[in-house]
Amino acid sequence: MGPPELGRRMKRRVVVFQAPFRVRMKIETVPTPGPNDVIVRSAISSVSAGTELLAYRGQVPTGLPIDASLPALSGVFRYPLRYGYAAVGTVCAAGDRVAKTWVGRRVFCFHPHASHIVVDPAGLVPIPDDVDFRDAVFLANMETALTLVMDGLPAIGEHVVVFGQGVVGLLATGLLSQYPLAALFCVEPLARRREASLQAGAQAAFDPAVMPSVTDRLKETTDGGMADLVFELSGDPPALDAAIEAAGFGARIIIGSWYGSKPVAVNLGGAFHRSRLRLIGSQVSSLPPKFLPRWTKPRRFSVAWDMIRRIRPSRLITHDLAVERAAEAYELLDRRPEEVLQAVFTYKK
To answer: Which of 45, 129, 224, 335 is the most buried (most CB within 10 A)?
Structure first.
């Protein structure tokens, strides 16, 4: 028999995408944990304005695997759907075959939004003692930003442009600002995010509605050579054409956006054809092959924690919402994105 808490019929609150533009908070019985499981009582989970918003809007290809690399996100995108991948909390109970040292540990979980999470501890990432929950909840996004930068391989003195200053874009800008670059520019339609990009270390931030300002500035700073390295992180298909326009001869364009089911029509008949550009797809589930022999998961997490300590991403949290207000959070992101940098759900009951 496990500890008493494992045997109780506890209730938990979970977020469910019922259908496009329909989200509800559901109360259900906590699944019965096995002897190799623990129960995590959530403190905070972060809301992705990227993939989760695609799920909210019904823009995810039906039947696509959610994330085969994460047990909690197995299955395919099909409504009703549970999604989310960044929760932090405290282990409150452990099964008979789990070391009791897990109880009381603060952990990060790649798991959909829920007040109580039943999981094998092998899928948990312990949070360092000196990292606050509000910073720790950014671990997944920081790991993504780290992967993007590793794919880009920025070099000393390069001119770099980042399209998209959502949370991942802002974290990537924060990482890039630590390199001795010649220039770091950002392109973002929302004024609040442009301001945040300057605080993250960008030298200039532009509205894509005035794209000539970006290219003119690049021509001025590079003597006509344009950018060496471009990141497309906006999730907006037309931004890929703008990224190609900003890239110089032989430049790398790192595509970190996931467009879901949105059509992407790219102009490859102009500057792209003669400029020997490289379009590089980046995704956090794997690292560039050249790093794989040495970069284990623990090493990636160790570096990500170091970057979290340095950047302190909790300053990006603009909305703390009780999980009972989940529908309000997604409606806000969908209709008034200019008001939000990062929204989080809290679990105080």
So the answer is: 45
- Which residues does residue 161 pair with via DSSP β-bridges, in sequence order? 185, 230
Per the CB < 8 A criterion, the answer to whether 167 and 138 are in contact is yes
Contact call for residues 142 and 91 (beta carbons, < 8 A): no
Q: How far is CA 209 from CA 206, 213, 239, in A?
A: 8, 9, 11
Domain span(s) for CATH 3.40.50.720 in the chain: 141-289
pLDDT, residue 60, reads 79
Q: β-strands 227-232, 22-29: how paired?
A: unpaired
Neighbouring residues of 293: CB distance < 8 A, sequence distance ≥ 6: none
Q: Which option is the CATH number for 4-127+313-346: 3.20.20.140, 3.30.1120.10, 3.90.180.10, 3.30.530.20? A: 3.90.180.10
- The answer to whether the beta carbons of residues 167 and 175 sit under 8 Å apart is no
Q: What is the pTM of this model?
A: 0.90
Fold assignment, 141-289:
Rossmann fold (3.40.50)
Phi-psi region of 289 (alpha: psi -120 to 50; beta: other; left: phi over 0): alpha
DSSP state of 124: E
pLDDT band at 1 (very low <50, low <70, confident <90, very high): very low
61-79, pLDDT tens digit by residue?
776 665 545 565 556 678 8
CB 332 within 8 A of CB 344: no
Q: Beta-strand (E) ranges in 129-246? A: 159-163, 183-187, 204-206, 227-232
* Amino acid making up residue 344: V
Nearest to 91 by CA among 146, 38, 14: 38
Residue-wise pLDDT tens digits, 72-113: 555 667 889 899 999 999 999 999 999 999 999 999 999 999
Closest CA to 314 of 31, 43, 70: 43
Residue 144's Cβ-side half-sphere holds a number of Cα atoms within 13 Å equal to 23
Structure-token pair, residue 269? 């008949």
